[in-house]
Amino acid sequence: MRFSLKLLLLAATVVLTAASHASAQTTQSNVITETRSEVVGDAFVVELENKVKQESLFSGLQKAGIPYTVRISFSTLFKGVSLQTDAQNVQRISKVPGVRKVWPLWSIIRPSARVSVTGSRLDVIHDMTGVKEVQQRYKYDGRGIKVGVIDSGIDYTHPALGGCFGPGCRVAFGYDFVGDNYRGPSTRKPDPDPRDTCNGHGTHVAGIIGANSADMMGIAPAATLGAYRVMGCYGSTASDVMIAAMEQAYLDGMDVINMSILSNTAWADTPDGLVANRLSELGVLIAAAAGNSGRIGMWATTAPGLADGVLSVTSIDSVKYYATVFTLSSDSDEVFEYIDTQPGRRLNFTEVQIALARSVSKPSNDLACTELVGGYTGKIVVAQRGSCSMDAKARIAQRAGAVAIVVYNNVNETFSPIVDDPRAIPTVGIQLDDARVLLSAINAGSAVNATFSEELRLTTNPNGNLISDFSSWGPGPLLEMKPDLAAPGGQIYSTWPLTMGNGYAITSGTSMAAPYMAGSIALYLQAHGKRNATPNRIRQAFQNAAKPVRSGTSIRGRQPTSVLRQGAGMVDVMQAITGSTSVLPSRLALNDTDHAAGGIFSYPGSPIVRTITVTNNGKASKMYSMMHIPTASALGFDARGSITANPKLSRSVATVRFMPSRFIVLPGRSQAVTVTITPPQWLPAGEKWLYSGYVVANPHEAVHVPYMGMKGSLHNVRIFSTATGYPFLQSAQDGSRVSRPNEKVTYTFKGNDFPWIHVRIEYPTRLFFIRILDAKGKRVLGLVPDSTTELITRTDWTPENSELGMAWDGTIQTTMSNRTVSALPNGRYHLQLVALLPFGKPDKESDFDVWRSPLISVARS
């Protein structure tokens, strides 16, 4: 029989755990696995209908004989509970009266942040963003504004953060939802104390928002902080914990919330995403990190920043930064920057000899991976990166008597050498270009001494005012226009737990950019008053005032970076607060050709018409001139249909016309402007180029409105790309693979004689499942049990997210209503992998991408 695809949405969402290509898997189980954990096994969020009480759910579960344990009950922003129960119970739970939907429990991670001792103090950055002028001219400091930090807690004992916790303290609100040793659902031990003593991330974020000391000044140094600890010492949490934290922040009266946290899903309509949008509707804006996956290509921004009501913030590098440096006695003008293993530590050596590592076994080898030969007592060893761990290099140099080791990179990039042993000698990293100069001085023959000063040196950043290389590309999977804004996030100096060093550290990431935005919003709320500053008004003010930044690799000189990378541009807090011109809407999401023009006569490249409204909020009449700033068009797919790690750029850009293009607006009045955008003429629609740029209303204060669209149809993108060698079936017994339609394979399903199904998801999909077809591939017999999965993020070529894998034990689920599972009889069959295309409807067969396996013979004895 053919199944109604509508029913597939009710199927259990499977557990995603670690997987590999191992050829000998000893356990047969129908469990989708992935190399990064996206959902938490045997835990689910149950959403209830509006008028249904939790007691009614519990009663229904008991009547149905479904065992469960309540994890968290929600009371304010989300109607439902999270439960611990076996995945096999999900279908039965969905049938309990009053249940609206059963969601998987997503894992949520802290974005990886680069930790260093080279970075920018906030006083330097505040000049870039207008914060310094706002603080000095208007004395705005965030007083009276509550900023919630949902993160790893805050070390409230830090003097710059008030030194105490509770009423009357700077950190006046908070709760620990997980406990220090949280590693997953079964280890959650909440308590009232949200102090961060072992992670650092939340403390660093809090300092950017509101530190107040002689060492540093945050954006809103008088704001009241709320510490909502959702991560322990190990840096991960779950979506139900996030919902609980958002509810508590709302109940505590937070005016703005920072979430420097990423879900592992590229879809916004998850329970925590829905709650984030609900907060925006209730007047509480969230600033969220856009993500640090800039090197995996487009469609890398994830939730919660993808939610429409959330501000997704990407990172910009500072124009100047304070660097930890050393100099050589042979040339004191030559300065070498280094990054230490421990945040906040600065080395202090004066005229200490440096010497190149020479091994006993390989004297010409400078890797320091085997015992060193020669005298190194009291010296600093210089070694090349590679071949062994940093811990090993440090131990070997230490045994030779060295007081420190300088490890140089094998590529011309800065890096932070990771040493886990707290007893190891100081280990610092330098980039390859600096190493060449250093090695030349050492090899000149005379002894070379180095001086490491504790003082930081203010240095001009060649990448200043550029998007940080780690910042994730947008857009969302349905061409949602993300990120929204950019703020400083590269090499930021801020507070750090006192238990983990001297109280300050420098880290990089969009995790640092988001709190800069949150602090800026606090200043705006103080300036305009909470009643007048709705989330939509705040978004409009900051996007209008933002300044597009140029690309470091632009093909058109000083052309701005794509909107897909920077959103509206660099935050300008001064203009956002004091600007007297507003333009609505503050962003123009044009979607693809199928959805942009909205008319039956639209075609790839046809003009798209939108209307914006320019309002003069000043006290005098203004003359406006409309202008267009294009950015390079970007292609996110390669010739195989896979998302490429390095998007291709083109000089072909959109053209824009305005009607009227020049006009005068009286004080308090508005002018409607028709904007006609024509996609780039010479770009093939079949390649799916994304074009973007800025519409500018240009009085003395330029007001920008970003736009972005796709030339072509996103609906016909490939979810499965056979050009990459996927999907394929792999024998758990001998590792052999089959993938081509003309191949055949036989499985007995005895012992390890069963297949693993390996697939790459080349583009995010809302719905994935595996059918079992007859030998002719014409008739659907049923489903592979537990293969149905919703809201899947795309895979990429990073080791932790390269594929999905599923072991199939030869069973079949014959109906959706009672989930009857039985052994598939002997015979010949095909498996059919099915994934919903963008903008597709689950009840429309043609809206799915499919892949059919080679012919499979089931030969049970």
Automatic annotation (TrEMBL):
Keywords: Cell wall, Hydrolase, Protease, Secreted, Serine protease, Signal. The active site is at D151, H201, S511. The keyword Iron-sulfur does not apply. GO terms for biological process: proteolysis. Residues 608-708 form the C5a peptidase/Subtilisin-like protease SBT2-like Fn3-like domain. One of its GO terms (cellular component) is membrane. Residues 1-24 form the signal peptide. Residues 375-436 form the PA domain. GO terms for molecular function: serine-type endopeptidase activity. InterPro entries: C5a/SBT2-like_Fn3, PA_dom_sf, PA_domain, Peptidase_S8/S53_dom, Peptidase_S8/S53_dom_sf, Peptidase_S8_Asp-AS, Peptidase_S8_His-AS, Peptidase_S8_Ser-AS. It holds the Pfam family PA. Residues 142-553 form the Peptidase S8/S53 domain. Belongs to the peptidase S8 family. This is Peptidase S8/S53 domain-containing protein.
